[in-house]
Design brief:
Helix content: 40-55%
Mean pLDDT: 85
Shape: elongated
Strand content: 15-25%
Radius of gyration: 16 Å
Structural class: alpha+beta
Low-confidence stretches: none
Number of domains: 1
Strand order of the largest sheet: 1-3-4-5
Largest sheet: 4 strands, mixed
Number of helices: 4
Distance between the termini: 44 Å
Order of helices and strands: EHEEEEHHEH
Number of strands: 6
Length: about 170
């Protein structure tokens, strides 16, 4: 709902689907948990022509494609959007590397390094969010905050999938 108490198209749930969840490194798990929590507290997600929702989104990777399975709350299909992962791979790899560097800097207690890495991480996060929003633009309207959280979840999902195949 908006300040005017008008309904806003939004996600009520976001699920990550992969064949074997496995364990995530603590920093990536914390990022995933925070993104889900933030999405539960507020998002703007409006699939074109699908009404106000609320919607349930399941993110998965299949055959090298990122899938957005969008359903209503009764789990009836609304649309399935497939995007090539290629354009996101470099950003995801760099983002996960930044998270690893951040965790190391925190362990070492190097405050200046932590701040520098965090600034770089935020920049990559914004770049990834902008790319996600642009790639979905003709199919789903989202705001920047929602795009940032979705990029986080896409990075987590990609990490899970690539960790399983390694």
């Amino acid at each position: 709902m908006t300040a005017d108490n008008l309904p806003v198209p939004h996600l009520s749930r976001v699920l990550l689907h992969d064949s074997s969840p496995g364990d995530l490194p603590p920093m990536i798990e914390a990022d995933r948990a925070q993104a889900v929590l933030d999405l539960e507290h507020g998002n703007f997600f409006a699939p074109r022509g699908a009404g106000l929702g609320p919607f349930v989104l399941t993110l998965s990777v299949r055959d090298g494609r990122l899938l957005f399975d969008i359903r209503d709350e009764a789990m009836q299909p609304i649309t399935l959007i497939g995007l090539a992962l290629g354009p996101l791979r470099r950003l995801i790899k760099d983002y996960v590397m930044m998270l690893d560097s951040y965790a190391t800097a925190v362990q070492d207690g190097r405050e200046a390094r932590i701040q520098a890495i965090d600034m770089g991480r935020r920049g990559l996060h914004n770049e990834g969010a902008a790319l996600v929003a642009a790639r979905l633009e003709s199919k789903v309207e989202i705001d920047l905050a929602t795009a940032r959280r979705l990029f986080t979840l896409i990075a987590v999902l990609h990490h899970r999938v690539t960790s399983q195949s390694a």
